[in-house]
């Protein structure tokens, strides 16, 4: 399992956007969307990888995944 797959992803339906939104709370500004839940998840995984790659290139600190952040 890679570090990318250990970040919490919150997925919900957005009526305003007419799509599923996937947010990664531990990575500032890291969000994705999709027409289906599965597509939003897939897109989030891609965006997480890109976020981490960019942070490494810029020499920024990469937060360690904390797992579940809150209870629903």
Automatic annotation (TrEMBL):
Ranges of residues in domain HicB-like antitoxin of toxin-antitoxin system: 7-66
Pfam families noted in UniProt? HicB_lk_antitox
Coiled-coil intervals: none
Q: Which InterPro entries match?
A: HicB-like, TA_system_antitoxin, TTHA1013/TTHA0281-like
| Origin superkingdom | Bacteria
How is this protein named in the record? Answer: Type II toxin-antitoxin system HicB family antitoxin
Gene source species: Algoriphagus confluentis
């Amino acid at each position: 399992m890679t570090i990318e797959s250990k970040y919490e992803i919150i997925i919900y339906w957005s009526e305003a956007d007419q799509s599923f939104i996937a947010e990664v709370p531990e990575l500032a500004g890291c969000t994705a969307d999709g027409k289906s839940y599965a597509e939003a998840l897939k897109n989030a995984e891609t965006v997480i990888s890109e976020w981490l790659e960019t942070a490494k290139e810029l020499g920024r600190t990469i937060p360690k995944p904390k797992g579940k952040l809150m209870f629903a």
